[in-house]
Amino acid sequence: MEEGLRDRFGNEMRKRFFVLVFLTLPVMAAPPDIGGVATGVRFPSFNEKGQMTSVILGDTARVMPNGYVEITNLRMDFLDPNSSEAKVQMHVESPHCLYHRERGAAASDKDVRITSDRMTVTGTGFVWENQSQVLKILSNSKVVLRGGKEQLSEGIKP
Prior knowledge:
The chain is of the alpha+beta class. The protein is built from 2 helices and 7 strands.
């Protein structure tokens, strides 16, 4: 009887393990083969010290023959490099983007929205390069600052 319980317990644990692995696959999955589509994608970027600086998330990703990954419902989270935990400093959202993993670059000609604690920026199109950590809005930029009056009365501080 004890052996039967051990077998059932072992089988139950194996089932739970496989369910756990199956549920986390979309987050951990590599991009699909050329033309294939993956859902729930995640592409982290790291600096020279090995710290994660940003992560690109998307509902779907399709690898194109030119090396780009077409991402729908993009969200990029930029992390605070001075924080020991993964604290998000800024979010970038766009309905569509092309991302090149090898070059560490992303671009879009669609609407873009950037948010942080102190500002919101909207516009049309963007270009981002991980190496330089520069994100450029291509057109129709609009910036809304929060706490702007305090900054003006105190002077803008770096």
